[in-house]
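# nightly structure sweep
# worker-07 picked up a monomer target from the shared queue
# config: single-sequence mode, recycle default, output format = structure tokens
# input follows
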Amino acid sequence: MNEEKVINKVKESIPLLMLLGLIILFALTTEGRFFTAYNLKVLLIQSSLYIIGGVGATFVMAHGNMDFSLGGIVAIAAGIGCVAGNEVTWLTLPMCILAGIVCSILVGLIHIYAKVPCFVVGFSFMFAGKGFTAALTSKVARFTPTALSKLDTFAFYLVMSLIVVVLGTFLLNYTKIGKFNKAIGSNMNAARLSGIAVNKYKLLAFLITGITVGITSFVNLIRSGGCTAQTGQSYETQVLLALALGGISMAGGSSVKMRSIVIGAILYMMLDNGLLLMGVSANWIDLIRGVIFILTVYISFDKKSVGFIA
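# output follows
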């Protein structure tokens, strides 16, 4: 038992060790360019987009699902928020969040009550989001309200990320929403027999995802300056890769931790940033990132949890 605990602790520490190792590597190989104030700010700003949306996705993963709708919902919410904001500026954030909630709840309802696999529903919304923004921006450019441009500061992205992470950590670790979703991920039948309203708490996980994705779409509008046909493209894949790099349990359950998205998002963006500063060709970065991703997941992944080992 003690040996198993030690092994689990080592596995849990792999993403953090990988992060520290990359920091040391890039510090030694980029002639000081990695540790400039400007570069670190850019790195954290880029990471914030994945951290915020990933906090919500963590709740869905806690009960054993992977949500591929994130990018599509970001696109839809950003488009609606942008249109509303150009009529009344202060409506931008509320409409982004409202659109995110509605879309994510729809994903949850279709998955839970129509018995459609979550990833199938997610892919459908991913394509719907692309189509929505393509139609919305085909004739008229959609720009973020000018008054919101003053929010495009490092402090804004940092504060938004911290607020979402702190609230997400509290909900995951200290409320029924987090505890019950982890219980569902550990054993759905046992959770149901113990009196947990499985469908209710799974739907609440999608609600939280909708809120965080709505916030992400607002942050994306501030960062990019508008909504285009490319808004949200591949966002869901990047968030799920960041979660995996951060060591999250793919099967959900009690081992799910909020730190996975924070470590994973920074790791994900640091690879691009550091390798480019090292002078590595952009053509090789995806290959290197893929190899590191496979190695990290192979070492830290609990194969017993999904039945790979009898």
